[in-house]
Write a structure and sequence with these properties.
The complex is a heterodimer of chains A (about 425) and B (about 270).
Chain A (H helix, E strand, L loop, with lengths): L14 H43 L7 E7 L15 H12 L6 H8 L6 H11 L7 E7 L2 H7 L16 H12 L3 E2 L5 H4 L12 H32 L4 H14 L3 H15 L7 H25 L3 H9 L4 H30 L2 H5 L20 H9 L4 H32 L4
Antiparallel strand pairs in A: 1-2, 1-3
Helix pairs in contact in A: 1-16, 2-4, 8-11, 8-13, 8-15, 9-11, 10-11, 11-13, 12-13, 13-16, 15-16
Chain B lengths: L5 H9 L7 E12 L2 E12 L3 E5 L6 H7 L10 E9 L2 E2 L7 H7 E4 L10 H12 L5 H14 L3 H4 L12 H14 L4 E5 L7 H14 L4 E5 L3 H7 L2 E6 L2 E7 H6 L4 H7 L5
Parallel strand pairs in B: 3-8, 3-9, 6-7, 7-8
Antiparallel strand pairs in B: 1-2, 1-4, 4-5, 9-10
Helix pairs in contact in B: 1-9, 4-5, 4-7, 5-7, 7-8
Classes of the chains: A mainly alpha (about 425), B alpha/beta (about 270).
């Protein structure tokens, strides 16, 4: 090295050098600040979303109930066949008993409106299940109908002028007498989880939607998990690397980005029209969702297989393991945590998917949960869609509550994925 | 030659009978990775019950040659092998050859210890189990014990056979890998820089072990350490840029090499 090319001595403490270093540190700090601002924005937006859901939805987790004494008198409820009884009469007798001071039939009808329209069914079911009450009196907690439910929860403001309220002064007075007598209670609303959909918001629940989503996800898992893993193993371990496999790979990635409504149309055209599978069935829903989950599972499985260090494959090959033994005994078991994590996240996506389910008719109005994968069903997101469309005031809070339930399931699934990853992750 | 102790040269001299039969033979082996040629007309004999050391600077093709001996290069798509490699006179690249059997007969120990993330017992028992070497459970226990004993590891791990093999120290892991290779009763053991990830004490143990194993197995070892080649091998082959520069008894290679490149390499002038 000649002396002419040697760098000149550099003065590190000169003002120029100090200024340059200062600028570099400032850039470091700015980058950090941008990241922090972004994170805070994201958390803030999420917080606003959850808070608004809780504010509107929390009232749906409790339900106004009224303790009413019913009498299964033999006149209305025959002892030998209680199910065929005239329960409408039983309920109106009970209302008369509740307000003995009312003798005007019009006023009595108004008073009956305090109880949910489902009271007749509730009493019938109770008497059928407990035939021993025939001829006796018994007390049941019956849900209040929607306006009174809202009134009790304070959603309807009693101080507003009468014409701007959905509940008249007369109705409020009736309800207040019940409150004074201690018959009104607001327990936790188990009905939200054990009832199916209903025209009456106070009776509507998510049981049918949860069962429908469960069956659809089950079908989706049973199809996309084995098929996805097998496809990924072939592509990763067996397929030659050429133009064709490149094409397959590109298209799998494309498939993961196809809008979900397209899969819905495909499901409608193929599974329902061509194969003649029943409409609204979780089977069809699961098939359509599995089309969407499949690319995700293939991609995560390939990544998981790729991340297994080659030394493990070499170790197995080196003692004469055949290809399937290397894959099934060594590579796949080590990749399973990653595969499971990806699968759960794929299923969580499928759980929240709405558009394809609307197209295959999983937004039907159904008052009983599906008994299997061939029965008509709704799913959680489509149930939210139905409720959001309903005019009754009670459905507003139920919609938010249903969204919270759906988010709860999603958080649970993602937490499970994180747990599995940390529990079984191996460090090399 | 200042780097070799007299004792090392002596051990190398002792076990160098020229008469040993040829176990594996490479004849004009050419290896290509896609367009790039990695080995040029390499012809090398591996003699039975001897340790053959492959030396040379990085990227010279010694590991490539080693991996050809049990067709480990098959796993690399773009790799193609031309020429002939025989095991007991039989061409191992013949399409009729069963690769699974070949790899059981020609075992391999890798640069980085790579035990399966399973128990010590399972690590050793896996090979015999897939090949059906043990008919009864007791046989398998016997194989595990003898393999660990031959690898000089049994006394250290006999109380924790069912603990994970990855929990052992680096040197123990490498001896576990050797035991795993022995367990399927190979004829040849290939070792690809088996001590490069080990400390000097663990290295000494493995080298000792290699010397003991020579009695029953034919060993080919790739190494970057000249001292190691001198200590453990009877024959040495020097590779450079994909060519076999020179091959012969280790003592001769280290005292009186024919090729200038060998001379330069072993005296540390390049590589």
């Amino acid at each position: 090295m000649s002396e002419t090319t040697a760098p000149k001595p550099f003065d590190w403490s000169s003002p120029e050098a100090t200024a340059i270093r200062k600028r570099r540190y400032a850039a470091d700090r700015r980058l950090r600040l941008y990241g922090l601002i972004s994170i805070l924005t994201a958390i803030g937006l999420l917080g606003v979303l959850i808070a608004s859901l809780i504010v509107t939805g929390h009232t749906a987790f409790v339900q106004t109930e009224i303790a009413v004494e019913f009498t299964a008198d033999p006149e209305n409820v025959p002892a030998d066949d209680p199910a065929s009884g005239n329960f409408r009469a039983v309920v109106s007798n009970a209302v008369q008993q509740l307000f003995p001071e009312i003798d005007d039939p019009r006023e009595l009808r108004t008073a009956s409106g305090i109880l949910s329209d489902g009271a007749v069914n509730i009493v019938r079911n109770y008497v059928t299940a407990h035939p021993e009450v025939a001829g006796q009196s018994f007390t049941l907690e019956v849900p209040a109908s929607d306006p009174y439910d809202q009134l009790n929860k304070g959603v309807i403001n009693r101080d507003l002028p009468e014409e701007r309220r959905r509940v008249s002064n007369e109705q409020i007075a009736l309800f207040e007498t019940l409150e004074e007598r201690g018959l009104v209670s607001t327990p936790f609303n188990w009905g939200l989880f054990v009832n199916s959909d209903s025209r009456f918001p106070e009776l509507a629940g998510l049981a049918g939607a949860i069962a429908g989503s469960f069956y659809a996800l089950l079908v989706c898992f049973l199809i996309s998990f084995p098929v996805g893993i097998a496809a990924a193993i072939y592509l990763e371990e067996f397929a030659p690397k050429n133009r064709w496999t490149d094409l397959v790979e590109v298209n799998i990635n494309n498939l993961a980005a196809v809008p979900s409504i397209v899969f819905g149309l495909l499901g409608l055209a193929v599974f329902i029209q061509v194969f003649g599978l029943p409409r609204s069935a979780p089977l069809v829903g699961g098939l359509v969702l599995s089309l969407m989950t499949l690319p995700t599972i293939i991609i995560v499985t390939r990544v998981a297989l790729k991340s297994i260090p080659p030394s493990i494959r070499e170790a197995a090959l080196g003692i004469g393991a055949s290809k399937h033994e290397v894959i099934l005994h060594h590579v796949l078991p080590l990749a399973i945590p990653g595969i499971l994590t990806g699968t759960i996240i794929g299923l969580a996506q499928a759980l929240g998917e709405t558009a394809p389910l609307l197209l295959i008719g999983m937004n039907a109005f159904l008052t009983s949960p599906p008994g299997g994968i061939m029965d008509p069903a709704t799913a959680l997101p489509t149930q939210i869609f139905i409720w959001a469309d309903s005019p009754e005031r009670g459905f507003v809070s139920r919609t938010s509550a249903a969204i919270l339930v759906l988010l709860g399931f999603l958080i649970f699934m993602n937490a499970l994925a994180i747990y599995l990853r940390q529990r079984f992750e191996r460090r090399w | 030659m200042n780097m070799l102790t007299d004792a090392a040269v002596e051990t190398a001299l002792e076990g160098a009978p020229e008469s040993n039969a040829v176990k594996m033979r490479g004849n004009k082996v050419n290896v290509f990775y896609g367009e790039k040629q990695a080995l040029f007309d390499v012809s090398l004999d591996v003699r039975e019950n001897q340790v053959t050391a492959l030396i040379g600077p990085s990227g010279c093709g010694k590991s490539t040659f080693l991996r050809c001996l049990n067709r480990m290069n098959d796993t690399i798509d773009i790799c193609s092998v031309k020429g002939e490699i025989t095991l007991d006179g039989e061409d191992i690249y013949n399409p009729r050859i069963d690769v699974v059997e070949l790899r059981a007969r020609v075992g391999m120990v890798f640069q980085k210890p790579n035990p399966f993330p399973k128990s010590i017992y399972e690590n050793i028992a896996y090979g015999p189990r897939i090949h059906g070497l043990a008919s009864a459970k007791g046989d398998l226990d016997g194989i595990v014990e003898t393999s660990l004993q031959k690898a000089g590891l049994f006394n250290e791990v006999k109380d924790r056979l069912h603990e994970p093999g990855t929990g052992l120290s680096g040197g123990q892991q490498q001896r576990l890998c050797i035991a795993r290779a022995i367990a399927v009763s190979p004829e040849v053991i290939l070792m690809d820089e088996p001590c490069s990830a080990l400390d000097p004490i663990a290295t000494a143990r493995v080298e000792e072990l290699i010397d003991e194993l020579r009695e029953n197995y034919t060993i080919v070892i790739v190494t970057h350490s000249m001292q190691q080649a001198a200590r453990v091998s009877q024959r040495t082959a020097m590779f450079h840029l994909g060519n076999l520069v020179e091959e012969g008894p280790t003592d001769k290679m280290f005292t009186n090499p024919e090729d200038k490149r060998t001379q330069d390499y072993i005296t540390g002038r390049f590589g």
